[in-house]
UniProtKB/TrEMBL annotation:
Residues 1-23 form the signal peptide. Transmembrane segments: none annotated. This is Endo-beta-glucanase. GO terms for molecular function: hydrolase activity, hydrolyzing O-glycosyl compounds. Keywords: Signal. InterPro entries: Beta-glucanase-like, ConA-like_dom_sf, Glycosyl_Hydrlase_16. The keyword Secreted does not apply. GO terms for biological process: glucan catabolic process. Residues 19-302 form the GH16 domain. SUPFAM superfamilies: Concanavalin A-like lectins/glucanases.
Length: 332
């Protein structure tokens, strides 16, 4: 692995070593930058579990077709944006990466300059156990069809729910709180009712929190030059933060390594036994199209025609369907 190339990026992770909210002590275990992604991750050429209009390719194909490439501290992961697809053939070529390392108690900081955008897109950065849903899943960055802000979600087996009050900036995904979020896009921590994380109880939806920051997803994220997502998983909580790169939302104490500030999403073990619901997790980075979420929300999100037809017939629409990672740093 390469060492951190930027002192600023390194300082942004130092807050996790000095968090006043946690007694844990961390040291860096993985620094993944540029070409280091190819040794830290495996390419998963698998059928899409979310039924997307996608064809996940292996490493040789991805590199030959420039779907992934690295230069300096830049790693690009993208979908094909030149091929018109046959309706009877496979979906649009894209990439799904899985980390070779697994993590339990840890902190991970994702420095991302650009994320995939466009109707039909469904990009995600997440962590998941091998035995789903029994070993749990945490979605850190996820959304569809350019409809921000970011959605942070836990997916678990039965008997895991969140408490009725949590100190976090984000909003539980419900009609009342969504309306409040759109009307009051501020950074005031709110109290929200708990919800059920069980995939069996929620038709796989889990328990989600929507960011209060409009620049946390899609074109707005890209227009701001990206930002940082961070996750801390302990034996008793999972916490996610987001800071936009250029919006001024990165607190000075974060830059100086003092504290984390109020998180976007906070999931404590008050009503969920973490030891029995979360196992070792791999990091996943993927870009799919349509499928169970982007496809079902496609028309309501104001996208043209049908999702499958749009993905098949408009390759140039996906010229901006790419991730640009400046790095991932993991602390254990």
């Amino acid at each position: 692995m390469q060492r951190p190339a930027s002192a600023v990026a390194y300082c942004l992770t130092l807050f996790l070593l000095a968090r006043t909210a946690s007694s844990a002590t961390y040291s860096i275990s993985d620094t993944i930058v540029g070409s280091g992604f190819n040794s830290a991750f495996s390419y998963q050429a698998i059928s899409d579990p979310t039924n997307g209009r996608v064809n996940y390719v292996n490493q040789a194909t991805a590199q030959a077709d420039n779907l992934t490439y690295a230069s300096g501290n830049t790693f690009i992961l993208r979908a094909d944006h030149t091929t018109t697809l046959s309706s009877s053939g496979p979906g649009r070529n894209s990439v799904r990466l899985q980390s070779n390392a697994q993590y339990t108690t840890h902190v991970a900081v994702f420095d991302i300059r650009h994320m995939p955008q466009g109707c039909g897109t469904w990009p995600a950065v997440w962590e998941v156990g091998a035995n789903w849903p029994n070993e749990g899943e945490t979605d850190i960055l996820e959304g569809v069809n350019d409809q921000g802000p970011d959605q942070v979600t836990l997916h678990t087996s039965s008997d895991c729910s969140m408490p009725s009050s949590r100190a976090m900036i984000g909003y539980l995904i419900s009609a009342v709180l969504d309306t409040c979020a759109h009307a009051n896009n501020d950074s005031v921590p709110r109290t929200s009712t708990g919800n059920d994380c069980s995939t069996a109880d929620t038709n796989n939806a889990g328990c989600g929190v929507r960011s209060n920051d409009g620049s946390s997803y899609g074109p707005a994220f890209n227009n701001d030059g990206g930002g940082w997502y961070a996750i801390e998983r302990t034996s008793s909580s999972i916490t996610v933060w987001f800071w936009s790169r250029n919006s001024g939302s990165v607190p000075s104490d974060v830059r100086n390594g003092a504290s984390s500030g109020t998180p976007t999403a906070y999931f404590p073990d008050t009503d969920c036994d973490f030891a029995s619901h979360f196992g070792p997790h791999n990091i996943i980075i993927n870009l799919t199209f349509c499928g169970d979420w982007a496809g079902s929300a496609y028309s309501a999100d104001g996208c043209p025609g049908t999702c499958t037809d749009y993905v098949n017939n408009n390759p140039s629409a996906f010229a901006n369907a790419y991730f640009d990672f400046a790095g991932i740093r993991v602390y254990e």
